[in-house]
Amino acid sequence: MSDNKFNPAYDNKIHQKFSKKTIANKISNKEAFCNEVGLVFDKKIPLICVTFPLTDQNNLDMIQDIMNGILEQPVEIVLTSIGTEKYQKYFTDLAEENKTKFAITDSAEDEKRKIYAAADIILIPAHSKECLEEEEIAMRYGVVPITPPQDFTEDYNPNLERGNSFVYLTDSPWSLFATLIRAIESFRFPYDWKNIQVAAMEME
Length: 204
Description:
By secondary structure, the protein is an alpha/beta fold. The chain contains seven helices and six strands. Strands 3-2-1-4-5-6 form a six-stranded parallel beta sheet, with helices on both faces. Helix 1 packs across helix 4 (about 110-120) and helix 2 (about 60-70) crosses helix 6 (about 175-185).
């Protein structure tokens, strides 16, 4: 993916363009997006996104199994709307019950580009083609994945201060959840998080 279509430095669909050198500008996209979808903007709270279709193929059960636990954390969540009826109903009901923490948006490409520019974390519960494509694009926008092992990911090591993602090795909701908690803890340290974001943008 060497084109500029999904490149925040040239993307005219996002609130403010940014690059690895100007990653601090990403926060203005988060503020604008939160205001647009009705979430409370707080730079200290990570915005988690799910932008792939809500289908069995993409292992949505694994996210569903831990969603109550996720909502107990200091996070906000945005999903795109496309998917099977059972997942659409589940997440629509969840968003209705948690309006201050949960938003569902259109799945059009322009809207997803706004999400990439705004989000801090993307959940990747499967090795499917759709998940892989979303993960790669999101990382170009400095979104840090919670992911199974991929050939372009390196699990963040706080001792070495290197890595571009948070990798879970066991294909289970509890492994995913534990890895997400680890990412949320790292998000509390802005300097470290910025380095992880930049490393994600360098993954190519």
